[in-house]
Amino acid sequence: MDEHAGHSMDHSGHGGHGDHAAQFKDRFWVSLGLSVPVVFFSEMFADLLGYTRPDFPGASWIAPVLGTAIFLYGGRPFLTGGWAELRSRRPGMMLLISMAITVAFVASWVTTLKIGSFDLDFWWELALLIVIMLLGHWLEMRALGAASGALDALAALLPDEAEKVTPDGVTPVPLHMLAAGDVVLVRSGGRVPADGTVVDGQAEVDESMITGESRPVSRAVGDSVVAGTVATDNALRVEITAVGDDTALAGIQRLVAEAQASSSRAQALADRAAAFLFYFASGAGVITFIVWSLLGELDQAVTRTVTVLVIACPHALGLAIPLVIAISTERAAKAGVLVKDRLALERMRTIDVVLFDKTGTLTKGEPAVLGVAPTAGVTEDELLALAAAVEADSEHPLAKAIVRAHADSASRGQLVATGFTSLTGRGVQAVVNGNEVAVGGPALLREYGVAEPAELEARIAEWKSQGAAVLQVLKDRQVVGAIALADAVREESRQAVDALHQRGVRVAMITGDAHQVADAVASELGIDEVFAEVLPGDKDAKVSELQARGLKVAMVGDGVNDAPALARAEVGIAIGAGTDVAIESAGVVLAADDPRAVLSVIDLSRASYRKMWQNLVWATGYNVITVPLAAGVLAFAGILVSPAVGALLMSISTIVVALNAQLLRRLDLRPDRLTR
């Protein structure tokens, strides 16, 4: 049984939670207005409060007529939902409510028409039961609609129009008129209308809607920007590379939609619990009716049976799991964690080991200067400046790393090189301040007939043991120093590994790099186990190897050559979204390339699972305890629960479950907070 399946079968024809919320809201207010005179003119209610009802012609028909209107109008969603559940042979909450109000309706008309000697005037209780159940469903649908609003929030991130750059100036155009290759102007404080590449300008860009990271990042010429992000301080000109459904934002919207539509094993658990309660309630209702009838209390038999059916409605149970999942999915999306498969989120709490792909995940996937070793008489800044001047015109990744390192250093001024020449397979050469300067590896030294200086041997040997690439810098054919470059380890990786260990989770690393390179990174980060020199096609075999030891594995990779391993693991996590958000092999996609986001998935999984069980225990335990009370097992002690009180208690139970689920919103999933 799925409570929401019952809702979706309602005659309204609308599919969204917002439509259902509006429907229940309208029916609630109309039914509430009609219920006031029904309750006021109820003989039972008047006797209860000790007032005299007005007596005029037709007064006795106010409760039956308005009560019937409430039953047909306010009770219609429950009646149609119950009938749908009956036809599909999937009894659930809607059927229980429809049974309860139908029994009360029939019993009340029997009394009104004076058929037999029954005193079963339930009009006021019927009215309150329907009103309270409508209120509960309205609150539930509104809560689910708010949780589903993550999609609307994402859609709202796009501007209404873009400023297209044309030969005649800047022209505002609707987003659907943009095409790849167009150039748009993004003003300071404006949102990027589509994915693209910066062709002019530099700005701090707020990418929190994609990455969950609150700190803006610098974007300049050549850098990619994503639709929906904000240029916070300066204007940018962006050449469009993807529009519409091809943008990263559209991909995120699809993932969130898939996550909110997907079924859940925990939801199946709630369904089984609700089915159990249906049979439990039905059995209890039959036994209650028989026992009270045998005691000669036919009025009590009907009253108790109706109350049992009211109390047993698994209203809170139907809300317990869906609301937790909807809120957790929304929280995850806001933290830059895109849950494609809810089962993946649920499994994450059981993970024993997180297996990280090294390149581009634990490391930046691009070379960076690891160390600088000058010979006597030369400073590190001077050596780096010489090398950067020569490498300035080179497109090689190692050259770019040296230039970048020099730009980031504290040295002042920049040397200018002329006569740049690329020495294929050996290095590069140029003239700097009248001196011939060359940068290259062992092949360059052999060509020049120059030996490695003895004073650098120990340092160079240490670098090579770490798997670093070592380049020599020669000035007028004499070695003046060496520079080591390696794939830079992310600072966030160290924090992620430490925090995973604190949570009792082992960390393993897999890479195609040589053992010495992998071991150096593992040693630096404190990783528990290393798989090195692994071919892309063999990565899933390593996942299987871990699983064969009885470990539950979460695989974290870039989603390209890691696809088989991501699919093999209990949880596949693709890291680094951008325009790659639609990676099919992963159950979870991290919008940023920050490995600390794995902690968000674990913490959210554990927190949401706790909430699911708290709600399940509350909902089912509440029913198991209150149904016998409704049946009248304590009648001898004067404790009897009326249907209206039963409805009120059940709605209170629903509110408790909803508030408990809302506590998930207090969970702080920002990566920098999770590693403290």
Automatic annotation (TrEMBL):
InterPro entries associated with the record: ATPase_P-typ_cyto_dom_N, ATPase_P-typ_P_site, ATPase_P-typ_TM_dom_sf, ATPase_P-typ_transduc_dom_A_sf, ATPase_P-type_domA, HAD-like_sf, HAD_sf, P-typ_ATPase_IB
This enzyme's EC code(s): 3.6.3.-
The UniProt entry lists the main location of this chain as: membrane
The subcellular location is: Cell membrane
A Pfam family recorded for this sequence: E1-E2_ATPase
Instruction: State the annotated membrane topology for this chain.
Output: Multi-pass membrane protein
One GO CC term on file = plasma membrane
Annotated P-type ATPase A domain residues: 157-256
What UniProt keywords apply to this chain's record, in alphabetical order?
A: ATP-binding, Cell membrane, Copper, Copper transport, Hydrolase, Ion transport, Magnesium, Membrane, Metal-binding, Nucleotide-binding, Phosphoprotein, Translocase, Transmembrane, Transmembrane helix, Transport
TM region positions: 28-46, 58-79, 91-110, 122-139, 273-295, 307-327, 616-639, 645-664
Any one Gene Ontology BP term: copper ion homeostasis
Alphabetized NCBIfam families for the sequence:
ATPase-IB1_Cu (TIGR01511), ATPase-IB_hvy (TIGR01525), ATPase_P-type (TIGR01494)
What's this protein's family per the entry?
A: Belongs to the cation transport ATPase (P-type) (TC 3.A.3) family. Type IB subfamily.
Q: What is the recorded name of this protein?
A: Copper-translocating P-type ATPase
